[in-house]
Amino acid sequence: MTSAAPESSPARLLHTGNEAPRRLRVVHGRDGVDLPAAERAVADLLRALGKDPSTEHLTDTPRRVAESLTELITPREFDLTTFPNDEGYDELVLARDIPVQSLCEHHLLPFRGVAHVGYLPGPRLLGLSKLARVVELFARDLQVQERLTTQVAGWLQEHLAPKGVGVVIEAEHLCMSLRGVQATGSRTVTSAVHGLIREDARSRQEFFTLARGF
Ligand SMILES: Nc1nc2c(ncn2[C@@H]2O[C@H](COP(=O)(O)OP(=O)(O)OP(=O)(O)O)[C@@H](O)[C@H]2O)c(=O)[nH]1
Ligand SMILES: [Zn+2]
Question: Which residues are CB-contacts of 39 (< 8 A; sequence separation ≥ 6)?
């Protein structure tokens, strides 16, 4: 078992050998979270907004907000499980409609939607649930959608060493729908592709067709 921190120098999972199922424990706390300081800051914010944090319903709000925000920026640990691709499966593997929820780093409001994540296998296959786990690994952070998309694709390319990777994310940003321009229902689509899915026209087209779902 090895620990991997996504932004620094994550442990390498991959490999060219065909060993049996292999698990890499991926852990990633959010360094620098100071809950008591966050609580005090939320109480200050409430006061600055003209609210009295000592009233019955607001009294625990600073703690709740501090804990909620911490939860939303802290990914859960998981095992990244891979299997040898003994049968030489060489077509796309694609998980569609993986739920995505993250926090926009400009307004600290959620953006939510779905990710479609696919890869062209190399020597190893990834446990299917792990595609969703990797999305969460980067979504639980203050994010912009473009960075989230490229981080998921880049991490899979580095750790799975597939022949190609593609990621499409479609999300609604509450900062665009609840407030500001109030463009309710507008969804932002971003993509990132590597390897053959980027370079080979047929693979690229197949990926985007499957990601669209029709
Ligand atoms: N590129 C990108 N922009 C984002 C994302 N999430 C939010 N934004 C945008 O970040 C921008 C911040 O612009 P500002 O003009 O500083 O913020 P603002 O005054 O609140 O802007 P309005 O939302 O237009 O009222 C807005 O246009 C948001 O829509 C994201 O994931 N990617
Ligand atoms: Zn925003």
Answer: 62, 63, 65, 66
172 is catalytic: no
For 162, residues 6+ apart whose C-beta sits below 8 A from its C-beta are 119, 120, 121, 122, 156, 195
The number of the ligand nearest the C-alpha atom of 189 reads: 1
Q: CA-to-CA distance for 193 and 98, rounded, in angstroms?
A: 17
194 is catalytic: no
ipTM of this model? 0.91
Query: Which backbone phi and psi does 108 adopt, to 5 degrees?
Result: 55, 35
Strands 22-26 and 78-84: antiparallel
Top-level class of domain 84-212: alpha beta
The pLDDT tens digits for 32-42 are 899 999 999 99
pLDDT of amino acid 18: 59
Q: What lines the ligand 1 site, CB under 6 Å?
A: 104, 106, 144-146, 173, 175-176, 180-181
List residues bridging with 191 in a β-sheet: 168
Task: Please name the amino acid found at residue 122.
Answer: G
Q: Let me know if 106 is a catalytic residue.
A: yes
**Shortest-distance Cα residue to atom 8 of ligand 1:** 106
Q: What is the pTM of this model?
A: 0.90
The DSSP line for 166-195 is: EEEEEEEEHHHHTSTT--TT--EEEEEEEE
The catalytic position among 104, 136, 151, 159 is 104
